[in-house]
Amino acid sequence: MLGFLTKQPLSLLCSGLRIRGLSVLCAQSRPRAMASSSSSWELPLVAVCQVTSTPDKQQNFKMCAELVREAARLGACLAFLPEAFDFIARDPAETLRLSEPLGGNLLEDYTQLARECGLWLSLGGFHERGQDWEQTQKIYNCHVLLNSKGSVVATYRKTHLCDVEIPGQGPMRESNSTIPGPSLESPVSTPAGKIGLAICYDMRFPELSLALAQAGAEILTYPSAFGSITGPAHWEVLLRARAIETQCYVVAAAQCGRHHEKRASYGHSMVVDPWGTVVARCSEGPGLCLARINLNYLRQVRQHMPVSQHRRPDLYGNLGNPLP
């Protein structure tokens, strides 16, 4: 009955490419018998960057810039960087010391990089000294979206802070240094589609993803720094669940490896399509993967399985408006 949704093998565009020790994997979900005359090569290409941030902000920028330039060379229109792309500090005091305002030197470097490369940048989690810094002495975990001219087109401040204690992973108290954001950001039109912004721990709250989808999102992005215990157990499961329930593409750029003596991250950056298939993923270590975004396929998934129209807001609230 739903033959067009049959799982197809990944079509590899390139494999094993190295950039000064960084791995690059390129993958594409084959279009599933859809009524579209567009060649898959005409579909927008996105790049998902995987890095190992340290407390050294200059070195972190050098690694991120290298991946962004390679993404531009390979034809991507948008590159996604993970949470804490700017740095991962050893303790809350160092986090606060290294943080900057949005108008600081680091964001200026990234605006110049976006202009130089001519592509959009999703900066997935910037340690931001907000306008209330002098009063609070705390920061925001801020997802910044830049267009290809280097202009800030959206900022989303993480609304769900990760205050957890996982046996074997050590306690995480994000609220020690960070203030939760006040609201969601409306999905933003980009060359790849309408993007809904989130950050890491937000993926555990399906209400957020449904709200963004109902506001028009076609791509949900969860830049992250998952730990070594929760990563193997929950990372891929949660990302695929968010894609399936919203029928959106999900893009998740991740931190990987050991950042310093106190912290390591799981990695496994990936792209999931609206059917829940992982269509691109990074290998171990810093690098990037590429995927094409097929919005015709997204619309067909929603048409053939109209779950948004079957929701019962009379039973469980307002998360029941049909998707556009």
TrEMBL record:
Annotated ranges, domain CN hydrolase: 43-295
Q: What class of enzyme is it?
A: hydrolase
Q: Which GO terms describe its biological process?
A: amide catabolic process
The record lists the lineage as:
Eukaryota, Metazoa, Chordata, Craniata, Vertebrata
Q: Name one GO cellular component term.
A: mitochondrion
Naturally occurring in which organism (per UniProt): Octodon degus (Degu)
Keywords attached to this entry? Hydrolase
Q: Identify its protein family.
A: Belongs to the carbon-nitrogen hydrolase superfamily. NIT1/NIT2 family.
MF terms (GO), sorted A to Z: deaminated glutathione amidase activity
Give the EC number(s) listed in the UniProt record: 3.5.1.128
Specify the protein name.
Answer: Deaminated glutathione amidase
